[in-house]
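Researcher: I'd like a candidate sequence for this fold, 323 residues long. If you have to choose between options at a position, lean toward the conservative one.
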């Protein structure tokens, strides 16, 4: 019995020594990583950064965290971010995010309210720390922009993982339940909408320790396996692919199938996604193409920095780039 007690105490002492050494190493790696990111142009500010979780976890808590990308296009602010990793699997991390945070993108600030927003992150257990899987989910989201628009959702899920074909290529999934806009739309059906997106994204470099140095990785290609929005009797289905050049200009074609297309076009215009002055032109052209059918199929084309819906030009294409 005495020998068993000695063995247990010795093992406990060894484990405690392992935990405190590992925690100190983690602190050092965090500080080194932050210093390297700042040297690459990232702006990272935090009131405090603490490590805890003894004996079974490594917990890191950052308070009043602000992160800005090297070019200043994106700034994220959160009052607190908590991460937790089991001591025997430190490459699998759970992030608990606060009920309110902000993201500023190219001059527009969006306040994100959430219920139960969490993310899990897995990276390779080697020096590259390459992304293995990322999953983020919430019971509800509430997005409010300082430009006047807002959206609410029920359950939300985002997932990202390497697709195993080429470095920097990822399968992406987005599911949003019970989506409602914050403004009244005359053509909106009763009840909320449901959104599902299944895509493959090719980045210019992998999401790993070196790939995240400097400016954010950029999209080179986006392939939609399916993107579907259902709202009452209305339905929008999209598939296709676009390539994105080094300046963020997209080229390619997305095929749209619109059920209840008259109301869908009105909704798109009311939501600010289509110039209202073009609505009657597009509606007349769509009526001819639909040939009396309730489902209209037409391409959204990106070419030479411009967009066209079917044969009708609808304006400049967005620049898909972050700096």
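Model: Candidate sequence:
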């Amino acid at each position: 019995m005495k020998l068993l007690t000695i063995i247990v105490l010795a093992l406990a002492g060894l484990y405690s020594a392992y935990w405190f050494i590992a925690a100190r190493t983690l602190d050092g790696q965090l500080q080194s990583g932050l210093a390297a990111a700042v040297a690459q142009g990232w702006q990272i500010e935090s009131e405090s950064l603490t490590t805890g979780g003894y004996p079974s976890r490594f917990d890191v808590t950052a308070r009043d965290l602000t992160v800005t990308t090297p070019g200043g296009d994106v700034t994220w602010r959160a009052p607190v971010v908590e991460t937790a990793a089991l001591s025997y699997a430190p490459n699998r991390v759970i992030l608990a995010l606060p009920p309110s945070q902000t993201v500023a993108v190219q001059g527009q600030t969006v306040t994100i309210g959430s219920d139960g927003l969490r993310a899990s992150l897995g990276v390779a257990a080697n020096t590259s720390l390459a992304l293995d899987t990322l999953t983020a989910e919430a019971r509800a989201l509430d997005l409010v922009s300082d430009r006047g628009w807002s959206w609410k959702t029920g359950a939300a899920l985002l997932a990202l993982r390497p697709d195993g074909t080429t470095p920097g290529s990822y399968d992406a999934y987005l599911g949003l339940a019970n989506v409602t806009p914050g403004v009244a739309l005359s053509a909106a059906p009763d009840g909320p909408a449901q959104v599902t997106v299944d895509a493959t994204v090719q980045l210019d470099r992998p999401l790993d320790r070196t790939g995240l140095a400097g400016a954010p990785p950029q999209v080179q290609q986006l392939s939609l396996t399916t993107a579907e929005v259902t709202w009452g009797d209305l339905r929008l289905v999209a598939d296709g692919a676009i390539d994105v050049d080094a300046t963020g200009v997209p080229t390619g074609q997305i095929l749209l199938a619109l059920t209840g297309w008259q109301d869908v076009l009105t909704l798109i215009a009311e939501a600010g996604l289509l110039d209202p002055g073009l609505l009657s032109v597009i509606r007349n052209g769509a009526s001819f193409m639909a040939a009396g059918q309730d489902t209209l199929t037409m391409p959204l084309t990106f070419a030479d920095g411009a967009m066209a819906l079917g044969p009708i030009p609808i304006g400049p294409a967005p620049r898909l780039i972050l700096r």
